[in-house]
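User:
Can I borrow your eye for a moment on a structure tokenisation matter? Would you put together a sequence-and-structure record for a protein of your own picking? Please set it down just below, with no commentary around it:
AI:
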Amino acid sequence: MASAGGGYVEMLRTRHAARLLTGTLVGRLPNATAALAIVLFVRAEGGSYTLAGALSAVYGVANACGQPLLGRAVDLHGQPRVILPSAVLAALGMTLFTVVGLDPLPLAYVAMVVAGFFTPPLEGGLRALWPSVLKSEDDIHAAYSLDAIAQELIYVVGPLIVMRIVAFWSEAGALFVLNVLGLLGALAVVTSPPSRKWRSEAREAHWLGALRSRGLLVLLGTFFFIGSALGSIAVAAVAYGDDHGGGGVASYLLSALGVGALVGGSVYGARQWPGTPEQRLRVLVAGLAVGYVPLLLVPGVVAMTLLAGVAGVFLAPALACAFVVVDRHAPRGTVTEAFSWLVTSFGVGAAIGTAFVGPAVEYGGAVAGFVVAVGSGATALLVLLVARRSLSAPETPGTVVARSENDRNGAVEPGFSAGVQA
């Protein structure tokens, strides 16, 4: 992994690295803040938590369906031809939602589908670009760690941006501004020379694409439940805020979650760790699952904010480790699609968690919402433990040794002989 903070500075000094990372982060703001922004907008329009959860779930499921399809399109056709048009369509979908509101409700659902499905695959695209921008293995691992840390910056800054725009303008204004920023971020990425020049390696024809990797499937199952936990926390935090002084409290909890992840990611990326990435991932997910349990105490605002920070400590390290594991298990020529599937599993989990936690909060308040998060975290760990052989041993009978285009570890992938591009 990254050697130290100096390694991050050196990596960012590489030409185009800072622009790509910043553009991706800004471009992801609409998606990263959607759970909170949609809930606040629906509540401002007079809708219930259940309706807010349902609309967020539709957005999340649509996003989950679109990410791998758009990721495969990027692998086949390049980044600018896919990412920019999809960013425009996603922004138009969310703009339609702010104009329509909740009446007529079917049109609001359609707007959520469009906004979610066409969210550009910026995360997968960035991770596919790193090997062409950064030439050393140390810099690439540093990039993955910094990528995970920087992602959490969105969860610190994003809720604060949402609440500030709501305070000075409105909930609809927050959705509009975030999507304009998202479009500008995507534009910054796709107009960069690395994005315009990048092409994926040729891939073997197979209808499952990246999903033919068993190790990747285990990883996706794990992050489905981690996403469910975070989606649950987003809604439970709003409910907690309603009971403890208003919506601003929810932003404190979600920002603290992001600060905890920033701290954890910085510590994780500052040194090398023993064992394989797959072994480290099990330890990190165990820490993540345990960290959610104290949220059930729902103490006062100050103490709850501290607990939220503790709950986020293992998130960025788990993500950084997962990026390496994806590299080790993704079949050749499917790198953007594989990373997009990780985003998808995370998004579907968040959407399902949001949908389930809405009725739970209506019935049992914030505590019930945090119960959903704790259960999801425990299930994520259970998936890793039960399927540890599939994730730890990528080589299976009938495989051939091949290197993923991002994998500097020589991981093997299933052998196929079609010899044509999927």
